[in-house]
What we know:
The protein contains 10 helices and 10 strands. The protein has one domain: 2-enoyl-CoA Hydratase, Chain A, domain 1 (Alpha-Beta Complex), CATH 3.90.226. It starts with 17 loop residues before the first strand and ends in a 17-residue tail after the last helix. Helix 4 packs across helix 5. By secondary structure, the chain is α/β, with parallel strands linked by helices. The longest helix is centred in the N-terminal third of the chain and has 16 residues. The relative contact order is 0.12. Strand 1 and strand 2 form a beta hairpin.
Amino acid sequence: MTDSPRPPEGDWLGTPYLRFEREGSLAIVTVDRPQARNAMTPAMYFGVRYAIDVVNADPDLVGLLLTGAGDFFIPGGDLAGGGDDDWGFPNLLGMDMAPYEAFRTSSKPIVCAVNGVAQGGGMMLAMLADVTVASEQATFRVPELFRGIADTNFAELLPRQVGPARARDLLLTGRTLSAAEAVDWGLVARVAPHDSFLAEARDALAWCARAAPEARRAVKRVIELQYGRYDRMSMEASFTADEMAEGYAAFKERRNPSWVPDDLDTGGRL
């Protein structure tokens, strides 16, 4: 199998930074882009979405496990751009490429094994998986507002997951949660020792896959209804606004955005 850019096909997810492996009836997708700390290009986000379609269409597969390599799970989109498969960054780093809706509507179970840093889109995927098992070394953060992104998806879903007060704390302050805090808050389901979290995640997926498929789908459908729908028009408007342009520039230049008052400037990337 070549690593050169080409469309997804079969178990090839269209990017060299995602690995699709079959372990019996389970599919394992590993995000592996160490040179960018697993930051996601549009092709990588789409590759995860495509992997869900592959699993749902394959009678030999019963579920999908998503994890990361190294110290990072998924830190969100690659705001620095570049890479072999950025597909026209930043215009395509949006909701049409992202797998969030596919996570919510997958008929077969999806489990996340969060090995390390989960930020932005990575934290969203951990939230939306049927079960998420976090390593004790995992951390969670939503830095979108510091990038000028009006993430109304988080604003809609996060209060339903952890409650309005905690959602405001996460979204407005950009604080980092430990794995233990994430479980305590109800952000993810389980935390496990780093040397056993992946095995526990596999076991969780196996148990999900043992459930009666149609009954499981009915239960998942009712759970999914609890999240509601986000304001996509407002979110997409922010993608082309001046604040996001400044947020991207500040991220790349490792500085505070210009809207931060001088006396509150931290002297580096937020």
